[in-house]
Amino acid sequence: MSEANTEAEAQALTPEQEQQRKKLINDAWSILYQSARHKQADEVDLSVYTLPWVYSSHTWQCDVPPNRATIRLVRDGSWWWWWEVCIERPDHFKHTNSSFVEPDEALKWAEQQLIAIQNEVKEPKQKPPRLTLADFSLEKQPHLAPYWIEAQAMEPERITYRVLIELECAPCDYESMEMSFGKQFRYHEKFYTPTKLARELNIDTTQVSVKQFFDWMGLYHVTSSTSYYTESLAAEKAQQLWDKSAIVQQYNVGNVLRAQYGYSEVETGYAVMLGGCESPDHPNYKLSDRAKYMAGLALSETLIYALDVKGFQAYRGIPTKWIDDEKTLAIMHKRRAESAHIPPEARAESRQWLAAHTANRS
Question: What predicted TM-score, i.e. pTM, was given to this entire model?
Answer without folding.
Answer: 0.75
